[in-house]
Specification:
Order of helices and strands of chain A: EEEEEEEEE
Distance between the termini of chain B: 39 Å
Largest interface: A-B, 28 and 28 residues
Oligomer: heterodimer
Structural class of chain A: mainly beta
Order of helices and strands of chain B: EEEEEEEEEEE
Largest sheet of chain A: 6 strands, mixed
Strand content of chain B: over 45%
Number of helices of chain A: 0
Shape of chain B: globular
Helix content of chain B: under 10%
Number of strands of chain B: 11
Strand content of chain A: 35-45%
Radius of gyration of chain A: 13 Å
Radius of gyration of chain B: 14 Å
Helix content of chain A: under 10%
Structural class of chain B: mainly beta
Number of strands of chain A: 9
Distance between the termini of chain A: 34 Å
Chain lengths: 110, 123
């Protein structure tokens, strides 16, 4: 159950797009299409953004999109807005009813 | 209002025990799997444990297996985490999180989080 690997930080200007990667193994990201993503603002609880790699729950803007290739999942945020500045976490099913999170990526909107 | 409210955190010495609770409201509690996720100060999220709607399956992160026990009482709309043999590395904000379901299907994701309860392990 090693944490998934995410870049520590990414940045982009308002209106631009950024992509956050999340790399695991064949035992988690690569083995299942059960990747989810969360946004966390300072001092707040995480907010649910994406499930099953690319599906958006009701209420999440379509600026947020997910994908996966092999053992690497990605979250793309298009049309960056100031309020997108937060820490983003990926999470994957890892077998035997367990889950594993990534280390988190801080997004800075320049 | 749909919400999860954690309680039971506090300061505890290494080796001692603590029991966390999570009170659910605003949704049909026994329709959903529930989880505990923790976050050490300044660190990332770590899944701790999960339990199915009927308590038929529970599992744990390797870091807590054998020391922590998850349980639920559907009649009381409550989730629990019994934490024994606490270590300094267990110090974290513990979140209760609800499993996500939509149109009759349930998924590996967490769509509702509480505000967390802080556990401090120190002598």
């Amino acid at each position: 159950q090693s944490a998934l690997t995410q870049p520590r930080s990414v940045s982009g200007s308002p209106g631009q797009s950024v992509t956050i990667s999340c790399t695991g193994t064949s035992s988690d990201v690569g083995g299942y299409n059960y990747v989810s993503w969360y946004q966390q603002h300072p001092g707040k609880a995480p907010k649910f953004l994406i499930y099953d790699v690319y599906k958006r729950p009701s209420g999440v803007p379509d600026r947020f999109s997910g994908s996966k290739s092999g053992s690497t999942a990605s979250l793309t945020i298009s049309g960056l807005q100031a309020e997108d500045e937060a820490v983003y976490y990926c999470c994957s099913y890892a077998g035997s009813y367990t889950e594993v999170f990534g280390g988190g990526t801080k997004l800075t909107v320049l | 209002e749909v919400q999860l409210v954690e309680s039971g955190g506090g300061l505890v010495q290494p080796g001692r025990s603590l029991r966390l609770s999570c009170a659910a409201s605003g949704f049909t509690f026994d329709d959903y799997a529930m989880h505990w996720v923790r976050q050490a100060p300044g660190k990332g999220l770590e899944w701790v444990s999960g339990i199915t709607w009927d308590s038929g399956t529970m599992d744990y992160a390797d870091s807590v297996k054998g020391r922590f026990t998850i349980s639920r009482d559907n009649a009381k709309n409550s989730l629990y985490l019994q934490m024994n043999s606490l270590r300094t590395e267990d110090m974290a904000l513990y979140y209760c999180a609800k499993g996500f379901c939509d149109s009759g299907y349930c998924y590996d994701a967490f769509d509702l989080w509480g505000r967390g309860t802080m556990v401090t392990v120190s002598s």
